Each structure stands twice: as C-alpha cells, then as structure tokens.
Description:
The chain is of the alpha+beta class. The protein folds into 2 domains: 20-49 and 116-441, no CATH class; 458-589, no CATH class. It has helices spanning 6-9, 24-40, 42-45, 57-75, 102-107, 109-115, 117-142, 147-158, 161-166, 171-174, 178-191, 196-211, 215-235, 240-271, 304-311, 326-338, 343-357, 396-415, 428-438, 458-465, 485-493, 521-531, 539-552, 566-575, and strands at residues 51-53, 83-84, 93-94, 365-367, 370-372, 448-450, 472-476, 498-499, 506-507, 513-514, 556-560, 580-582, 585-589. Strands 8-7-11-13-12 form a 5-stranded mixed β-sheet, sandwiched between helices. It has a two-stranded antiparallel ribbon with strand order 1-6. Helix 11 (178-191) runs antiparallel to helix 12 (196-211) and helix 16 (326-338) packs across helix 18 (396-415).
Amino acid sequence: MSAVPAAVEQTPVAEGRVPGSGTVPGWLVLCCYLLGALVVTSHLWVDPAGRMQSGDVQDVNLFAWFLRYSATAVSHGHLPALFTTALNAPRGVNLMWNTAYLLPGVLLTPVTLLAGPQVSLTIVLTLSIAGSAASLFWVLRRWGASIGGAALGGAVYGFSPALLNSGTGHYQLVLAAAPPLIIDAVLRIVTGRGRPVRTGVWLGLLTAAQIFTGEELLTYTAVAALVLVLVIALSHPRAVPGRVRDTVLGAAVGAAVALLISGYALWFQFFGPLHEHKVLRGPGWSGNLAFFVDPSGNLLFHTSSSAAVVNSYSLGLPEVLAYLGWPLIVVLLAAAIRFWRDPRVRAAAVACAALELCNLGGGPLQVGGFRLPGSFLPYHWLQGLPTMAQVLPDRFCILGAGAAGAVLAFSLDLARAPRPQARPWLRRIPATVAVLAVLPLIPLPYQAAAVPPVPTGWQAAFSRLRLAPDDSVLVIPVTLIANSEVMRWQADTGEPASMVAGYILRASNTGQAVFNIGPQQAAAEWLNRLWAGKVRVHASSAALVRAALAYWRPAAIIAVTREGSRLARFMTRLVGRPAFHVGRVVVWRL
C-alpha cells in the first residue's frame, strides 16, 4: 500500500516544473497581477518619492527609517547590526524585537540610496501585492488547479482586503509571497510529493527569508500549515506511519538550514541586549462579526454605513482584515459541502474556517442575545502559547484569504469538470458564479498623502554641527509611538546618525514588551505638548526635563520651532543660549 493517499496521487505534479508555469497564459496571469497592483498603487506612482498611502502614516515613516538603516549599513560594507543606538540613544534598541524588515531593506539598498526610502517602499508595496498573488497561483498550479482556477485563487489572496488593508502601513505583512511557498514545501514533504532533503532545504531557505522579513507572518503560516497537515493526517490515518520517517527528515533538514542562516539572529533576539522575556498582553482581543461582511470605504462596492462601521474601529483600517463578503462566504460554504470528498478542498476549507474565525479572538463572543463560550473559537486554544504572545489574531485572516482562494480554485475546477451528456454551456455557470462572488473584493486605489517634508534648515544645521558618528541628538518634537515624523526626516537625509527616543518596541526593566522609551517617556511627552503649545512651564516640568537630559546626555538639541517660541525660551533657560538657528531649526550645543 502506498504511503501517499490515493486522492493526492490523482493529480501528480513533478518535483521541478509546474504545468503551464512558463506558457503564454501563465505569463499573462502574472502580468495581470502586476497591472492590478500598479492600479491599486497608482496614486503613489504619480510621485513615488513624495507620496505615501494614507491611513497609517506612523508605520510608513517607521519602515522608511528601517530601509534607510539597512541601506546605510550596506553602503558601509556590512550587514545591518541587530542592535543600534541610532534610535533611543543611549539605551538603544534590539531590532529583532521590532519589524526591522532587514532582508527587503538590504535588497532595496541601491534604490534607497539613489532615489530615497519612499521610492523603495512604493516599489516593494507594488511587488508585494503582485508577488503574493503570483505565489499562490504557482502553488495552486502545482497542486493541480487549472490556470483559470489558480488565477482566480491567487487574485483572491493577493488583492484581498486582508492583504491590502495591511499594506496601508504594515509592509512586513503585505509582503506575503513566502507563506504559500512554505506551506507548499511542508505539504510536499508530508505527502511524499517532494524529496525530503531537497524540499527540506527549500523550506529552510524560505523560513529564514521570512524571519528576516517578518517573524509574525511566519507564526500565522506555521498555524495554517499545522491545520492542513492535521486534516490530511486525520483524513488518511493509515498513510501516516509510512510518512513519518521522510516527514521528520524533511523537517529536520528545513530546521537545520533555517537555523544555519538565522540562528545567530534568533539567539540575539532571545538572549541579546534588551531582549524580552515576558509577553505583550492587552485587554483581550474582541473581534466583530460585521467585519466579515461590511465592506470598507477602500473597496469599490461599499455603502456609507458599512464604511462607517469600519472607520469606527479603534485600531483603524490596517487591523480590519476579515472581510470576504456574503457572496464569497456562501460560495465557499456551498463548495466545501459539495466537494468535501476532495482532499484539497477539505483541507483548504477547514484551514480557511479556522484562520478566519481567529479574528474573533479567544471569546466569549456575544451574538445578539446569545453568548458563545470561548472554547468554540480556535484562537481560544492558541492564545496561551508562547508564540502567540505578540501577535494580533485578526492577522490570521491574511492566510485565511489564501485558503479561501484555494477552496475557490479547486472547487471551480471540480464544478467545471466534463460530465457525460452534460450540455457545454452548463460548464460556464460555475465560473460565472465564482467571478460574481469575488467582485465585492475589488479594491479602490490607495489614497495618497504627501510625505512629511524635511524642515528648512535641517541639513544645514547638521552641516554646521559636525557631530561625531556616535554623538546623539535630541530632536524636538521628540519621536514617540504617535509621532514618527522626525524618523522620516532622519530616513530621508541620514541625519542625525544617533537620536534620542524613537517609535520602537522595547523591553521594560521587567522584560515586558512596551511601546515607550523608558522612564524618560513623561519628559518626552511633556516636551511635545510644549512644542505644540498645549502646556505651560512649571518648576516641576523643568525638573522633569532636566533629569531626562541628564540621562540622555545629547551632544546637541535641535528644535523645529521659531527662535522666540515658548519652547525656545524654555530650552534657553534650561541649557543656555542657542548656538545658532537656521531656517525653521534652532540648535543648542551641549
């Protein structure tokens, strides 16, 4: 008896080549994905260096900083350091606990140095959308889907609200090309359709690449792969013993390759400076069933009331990732029931349901007057695991959209399969229904906003200061989680080389993950309120800032303000007369 389930053997695909991957129709599909991604990002391409997508300006600025950081390191002949005082000086920051985007940053170095970080971000956003769709298309073709079915499934994934809403600022999530490839490698090892050593090496390379792109997405991918493997194993229990040896070998090879490449970085993350050893805990995640069916305002088909539901969400559009729409949900349910016996449909349908329902959190869930216990929700069983400590459950919907695309692709092919004595026009009905079901997912182009301009006099001020590379600077307004504009100026100009504070995730004194800069947070917030003209100066506030300066010990203070402003007068009383002012910048040497 073969160790591979007979149902899987029905659609064999060679280890090397994917059928139709190099044909004209296959290339046409990929070109359509790229064209669609260009349409979605069209408002950005009007001025790729000066425009960014609206909705999450803080994170766009953050990723611009990460790209500049990596590019600067490569330009000096080395890889980016995993610990730096370029932010949050003098304490520094462990970049492995932040979304440092190291691999894309290194690869985009030429663009970043020549054209600036915003051009790199526009390029990577466009390629992330098209590449994610192409990745699932390739995987679906490898598992026997037709070009038409795979094309539709890839589009559901790459252009899903889950992916595109993430793209408003979470670049580490919208670059989701690796997860389908990782899952494909796992399933090929488990089912015996791939050589364990060769496929294991490929799995390890993909895993390492994802670690240096975004570890969080790797967590969701691992859960999705586990669900698929469990469904396959439970569906064919007699085949399990025969697959254990090769599965363990492939997994071991994959882990060895991944650790060979990323082992030091992972050690640095968990045992290096400022590492975290407690979990990021919030008030508890509570999802909203309305997000599955109420379209946001960035979809072509929406209503003012549905857009209002999404806009009222406290975490904003980047965390509204569950939308599939009633038509697609009904079609997916019908397809799962009708073609449940097909192992591909069954596995993808279970994975889709589990991943999408994670959006509802760990429960309990209130539905009208009915209270559903948390034990009925999948995330209830995941939330206590160590790897779940720093993830948001709504982001499982990114992989859920991929599983939805797979269900649609495989079931469409099964519904269109030739049947004896069936009229040819009947085969067109399933395709028509599938296309109509995904129409509500059609996105509008990203809305664009201007990149925050560098203040007049910024670069001239640093030219006159002539600071040493390790000299830190306090810039006012001080960079914090809700104010990353200065990091954008630093990303665009490379100045200063080292800056006090920053929009970072760091470990507190107890190891708890927090979005603040430490005990000096209160002083930084007060300075920002003074800069905005929202507070008055008192003796206690002066003492607060003086204590913070004693810890920060900056070589210079740069305030983006006019010379006679309340902030400038306060700093003058605190540290003496300014050394000079130029443009909108007032400078104190310390």
